[in-house]
DNA sequence: CCTTGAGTTGAAGCTCACTTCAACTTGCAG
DNA sequence: CTGCAAGTTGAAGTGAGCTTCAACTCAAGG
């Protein structure tokens, strides 16, 4: 019917509030053309961009970084399959890292925090960190990134 | 040597800034005794609490909720192994959920956003959401929790 | 004792990611 | 043509999670 979306339509379709979409636009994450009366109109390809933004934000990537990644997409034309594939490959490793981090955290929680060792003094990890190694990491080790 | 930790020691051992520790204390997430000169002294078991707080916050649990969970720990005494086990079991399922969500996101990113379908119109998911189902979820589906 | 680094407070400030507001304009259905 | 939902703007507000500041006190080594 119409091949450009109003901000309300993009909002309904993406699940992102109009105010947030305007915010994303101010940050340069998405873009629009304007009608004669100055209203925003979005290409359908923006739906994909918004989905990408939400997925990325959900896993903790700051909007600024998402913007930097999106800036690698071609400016003038609608991104091709190849464009998106390139972008999502880089992002995938980021997701994999984040997932791996969380799995480590979960296993530590189970194996160490769950066992009561820090207060019961029956855990190797605790004894190493807290009683043997003065500069020792102890629980800190849990939080290291990368 | 000393069996109570100063705020600086707890900070060094946990990797959390003193200001953040005071903040946690204001919120009731951790507690301390005071010296004659009004300085905080922490029991060693607080290290475990702080580790728990950081792990939980890292996966997106708001501090208020973490506080609610910690409130289930016994007030007077140092928590036992059983106390922590109960707490961490409930939390583990939360971590599992979060991990599963991220895996779903990753797979969708690979299988759908990665393939270029939203702009190339070759993807079932896209066609369903965007062309067949008017109230359809489309990319929104990606973001649903639970 | 003296110095110095560590700790104390409440209040204010900061970043991120938005939302809300007020005052106004557009676009479309009837 | 009219009415009204939907859109526009910049500025200010929100809430989470801290950090910084100023002005001060404490604790411990030399």
TrEMBL record, chains A, B:
The keyword Metal-binding applies. The keyword Iron applies. Keywords: 2Fe-2S, DNA-binding, Iron, Iron-sulfur, Metal-binding, Transcription, Transcription regulation. One of its GO terms (molecular function) is DNA-binding transcription factor activity. CDD domains: HTH_SoxR. PROSITE patterns: HTH_MERR_1, HTH_MERR_2. Residues 4-72 form the HTH merR-type domain. InterPro entries: DNA-bd_dom_put_sf, MerR-type_HTH_dom, MerR_fam, Redox-sen_tscrpt-act_SoxR, Tscrpt_reg_MerR_DNA-bd. One of its GO terms (biological process) is response to oxidative stress. This is Redox-sensitive transcriptional activator SoxR. It comes from Planosporangium mesophilum. The lineage of its organism: Bacteria, Bacillati, Actinomycetota, Actinomycetes, Micromonosporales. The gene is soxR.
């Amino acid at each position: 019917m119409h091949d450009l979306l109003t901000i309300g339509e993009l909002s309904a379709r993406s699940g992102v509030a109009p105010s947030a979409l305007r915010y994303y636009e101010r940050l340069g994450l998405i873009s629009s053309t304007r009608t004669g009366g100055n209203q925003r109109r979005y290409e359908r390809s923006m739906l994909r961009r918004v989905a990408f933004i939400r997925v990325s934000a959900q896993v903790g990537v700051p909007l600024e970084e998402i913007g930097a990644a999106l800036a690698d997409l071609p400016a003038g034309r609608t991104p091709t399959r190849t464009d998106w594939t390139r972008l999502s490959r880089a992002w995938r490793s980021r997701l994999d890292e984040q997932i791996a981090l969380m799995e480590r955290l979960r296993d530590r929680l189970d194996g160490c925090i769950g066992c009561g060792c820090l207060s019961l003094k029956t855990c190797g990890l605790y004894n190493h960190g807290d009683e043997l190694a003065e500069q020792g990491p102890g629980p800190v080790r849990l939080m290291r990134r990368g």
